[in-house]
Specification:
The chain has 179 residues and is mostly helical. It has a domain of 49 residues. The chain contains seven helices and no strands. It is flat and about 105 Å long. The two termini are 94 Å apart.
Length: 179
């Protein structure tokens, strides 16, 4: 055990509230550390003095004199003794309150603009047109002719690029399946 832990647990040690294991560790630390031993002795002597002081008892007529004095003060004076009245606010206090109210008003106005619904956007009417059903050529002939003929990847790339156009322009027919 170190001195810091001893000081933290000392109140429980003096009052004999610690578990037996901690009490034994505290006693061992007292035998090793002279500084903590001196502190423990001083605290125990102080407690011995305080506990052996005679009890303080007020005189027999104390309550009668106290009540007479409180009665003579009146209710307003008693309130000042218990909770003194606040002084009047200064000009700085009024200025701070006014600035706070102005800030709250500004923030409330800004938040109402921030959370206000956006105006509905007006869009000009549009007319949809039907897609051209003519099938598109696989690729432009000039484009294909300009490619190197030694690379077999390009025709596949061109076909993949044109596939969505070809599939979009195909017409599907319902057919009846018979068994």
């Amino acid at each position: 055990m170190d001195c810091r832990e001893f000081r933290n647990k000392h109140v429980g040690f003096v009052d004999d509230l610690l578990p037996a294991v901690d009490m034994e560790r505290m006693l061992r630390h007292l035998t090793v550390c002279s500084k903590c031993s001196r502190q423990d002795t001083a605290v125990r002597r102080s407690l011995l003095l305080v506990r052996n002081l005679p009890a303080i008892e007020p005189s027999a007529d104390f309550m009668a004199r106290l009540n007479a004095r409180l009665g003579a003060m009146g209710p307003a004076a008693r309130a000042d003794v218990i909770a003194p009245r606040a002084h009047l606010a200064s000009l700085g206090t009024f200025a701070a309150i006014a600035a706070g109210l102005a800030a709250v008003a500004y923030l409330s106005l800004e938040t109402t603009h921030y959370f206000a619904p956006d105006p509905i956007a007006q869009v000009a009417p549009m007319v949809a047109q039907a897609a051209d059903t003519a099938s598109a050529p696989m690729a432009n002939a000039a484009y294909v002719a300009s490619m190197s003929t030694g690379m077999t990847v390009w025709p596949a790339v061109l076909m993949v690029g044109q596939a969505p156009v070809r599939f979009a322009s195909l017409e599907f027919h319902d057919t009846e399946q018979t068994r």
